[in-house]
Design goal:
Largest sheet: none
Number of helices: 21
Structural class: mainly alpha
CATH class: Mainly Alpha
Strand content: under 5%
CATH architecture: Orthogonal Bundle
Distance between the termini: 18 Å
Shape: globular
Number of domains: 1
Number of strands: 0
Length: 440
């Protein structure tokens, strides 16, 4: 039997790995910047390979987890009309939080003027890929080859196919019941695989942080200090204050308990800077720690990771204000309204597109006539800020999930209030098969 060390919680171990990684990165950058073997064998060797394996391991679970859990949730619905109501609520909340995020960002950007006095005359050229139209995105949601969609990791197509497959299972009578039982067992196995992976997370986080902070210098942050501070503060306000108020007003649940139980998922999101890669941990947190029914979480979490981009919307708002101020271009109230509407709709219109944040920002800047070249300047600190944005995004996904689950009476309140909820799920016991338990 493999017993787990209880002296330090998973969150504590992840934070320790993060701090040690950051410290190691700064030490290497400060003392060994010219030492070739350190960069060859440590930075580009151990750190790069270890971090890449950790990210790949997380992404490995995304497709089977999303498909299996969503099939389980959909097939267990007694009334298919519930799915339409559930989808309507979820999308409405996601769009609302995105609109609030961009409004808050524009307000903070206008209030603190992070771009005042900045010199962007030397901005290098930047071009973002053209975003698809909303119609193209809607058509693209329906897969012509579901297996290919899974191979490519196309989340929206996987969601659509899983919902249709789940509905078919529900309508297939006794045959569907047998298939549903198999998917239920598969879901338990996948969640245990997530728990197993979480125990190697501190090492993966250490590798990622060590490599990142070996390459990021403080000078990049100091050159854009105003932008960095305003954007970071806005992200924290939205993640801690706005979501807490929403949770309390719309569900009556305790924000303190919610944020406490989100610690692991937030640490994973921060270190990976990927909402999709964090889906397994977010799902485990929502169902096992927050008490949300799999029927709800299996739909809202993957959808949120795809279209709910509050952190990215905040970046667009602050970056728009920063670039306008740096180029001495005044924006009118109608321009600000255009930014809010464009960024909110673009969060769906560019869902699943690589480099989505920069594509959305380019769309917003074009909408109000600001030079797209300004993006090149802020890219210097974007990787670090992307980590905070991702943490905000998955917090928003979980907040909306709890609100929708509470409104649908699909939430275990006792589990939500239990500080030890989910602890047993994280335990991993490697026992021999019962028939082979005794060997002479």
């Amino acid at each position: 039997m493999l017993t787990q060390n209880k002296k330090l919680s998973l969150t504590g171990r992840v934070i320790l790995g993060m701090v040690l990684g950051i410290f190691t990165g700064f030490i290497i950058r400060s003392l060994f910047s010219e030492t070739s073997w350190v960069h060859e064998y440590l930075v580009n060797g151990l750190f790069d390979v270890g971090g890449a394996i950790f990210i790949a391991s997380l992404k490995m679970l995304v497709v089977p987890l999303v498909f299996i859990s969503l099939v389980c949730g959909t097939s267990s619905l007694s009334d298919i009309s519930t799915l339409g109501r559930l989808g309507g609520k979820t999308i409405l909340f996601y769009l609302t939080t995105t609109a609030v995020a961009i409004t808050l960002a524009l307000t903070m950007g206008s209030l603190f003027q992070p771009g005042a006095g900045a010199d962007l005359s030397a901005a290098t050229s930047f071009s973002a890929s053209e975003a698809p139209s909303l119609g193209e995105v809607i058509v693209g949601m329906f897969p012509t080859n579901p297996i290919n969609s899974m191979a490519q990791g196309n989340t929206l197509q996987i969601i659509v196919f899983a919902i249709l497959f789940g509905i078919a299972i529900s309508a297939a009578g006794s045959a569907g019941e047998r298939i549903a039982a198999i998917f239920t067992d598969l879901n338990e196995v996948i969640m245990k695989l997530v728990a197993l992976l979480m125990h190697i997370a501190p090492f993966g986080v250490f590798f990622l942080m060590a490599k990142l902070f070996t390459n990021i210098g403080l000078d990049a942050i100091f050159n854009l200090l105003g932008y960095f501070l305003v954007l970071s503060a806005t992200l924290l306000i939205h993640g801690l204050v706005v979501y807490s108020l929403m949770l309390k007003v719309f569900s009556g649940l305790s924000p303190k308990i919610f944020l406490k139980k989100m610690e692991d998922a937030i640490m994973f999101a921060f270190s990976t800077a990927s909402s999709n890669a964090t889906i397994p941990v977010t799902m485990e947190t929502a169902t096992k720690r927050l008490g949300v029914s799999n029927q709800i979480a299996s739909f809202t979490i993957p959808l949120g990771a795809t279209i709910n981009m509050d952190g990215t919307a905040i970046m667009q708002g602050v970056a728009t204000a920063f670039i306008a101020q740096a180029f001495n271009i005044d924006l009118t109230m109608s321009d600000y309204m255009a930014v809010i509407v464009t960024a909110t709709l673009a969060s769906i219109g560019t869902a699943g597109v690589p480099g989505v944040g920069l594509i959305m920002l380019a769309m917003v800047l074009n909408q109000v006539g600001l030079p797209v070249e300004g993006i090149a300047i802020i890219m210097g600190v974007d990787r670090l800020l992307d980590m905070i944005r991702t943490a905000v995004n998955i917090t928003g996904d979980s907040c909306v999930t709890c609100i929708v689950a509470k409104s649908e009476n699909a939430m275990d309140i006792a589990c939500f209030n239990d500080p030890q909820a989910g602890a047993k799920v994280e335990e991993v016991h490697l026992n021999p098969h019962p028939k082979a338990s005794h060997i002479d």
